[in-house]
Amino acid sequence: MSDALPPSELTRMIRVRPLAGGPVVIEASPEERAALALRFGLGAVEALRAEVSLEQRPRAIRATGRLRAAIQQPCAISGEDFPVTIDEPIDLRFVEAGQLPATEADEIELEADDCDEIEFSGEMFDLGEAVAQTLGLAIDSYAEGPNADAARRAAGIVQEGEQLGPLADLLAGLKKD
To answer: What is the pTM of this model?
Structure first.
């Protein structure tokens, strides 16, 4: 059994030395956007652009910037796609293999700067895959589209306080007192 990861839909390999001088701009092609939509169960990724600055730090490379995307996401209630705009900060640390704790038994103190660490080995790391993962984390799995309430009513699901029937009448009478 292999531990190899499948190829990323948005591969952008960055050399560790020398680091890019200015911001790195990642814009997904139509093919990459279609593959990302499939990966994340979206109707479409209409646009994806990230601008990331890289900074060499002791033991890590800090990547900061912004991800902006326009997606068609299925409503958690009706299943119909609706447009969503994503505008998400990027704040990652790429850490050379062996720098992270070796076992779960090792106790470590996490600081805000330590939370989003991505391990890499060799002379390159995949900034594109990190952007793809940032997109995946920014998608609200329970987002409701504009027709969610109509879908609830059609399925017979009512909002709290809208219940009908003899028990609902008794409950309403208790709440008035």
So the answer is: 0.76
